[in-house]
Amino acid sequence: MMSPLEFFRTLPPKMCPECGEHMHEQAESYMMECDRCLSKKDE
Ligand SMILES: [Zn+2]
């Protein structure tokens, strides 16, 4: 059986669906795109 800690460690790195840039895990996990794409949408 896999422990919860082991489960999270095996998760693939978060990727921006817009540009494919790998992102660091953030507290605001509801944001799907990276900072660059998010600021692009603001304009
Ligand atoms: Zn992006």
TrEMBL record:
<dbReference type="InterPro" id="IPR025432">
    <property type="entry name" value="YhfH-like"/>
</dbReference>
<protein>
    <recommendedName>
        <fullName>YhfH family protein</fullName>
    </recommendedName>
</protein>
<dbReference type="Pfam" id="PF14149">
    <property type="entry name" value="YhfH"/>
</dbReference>
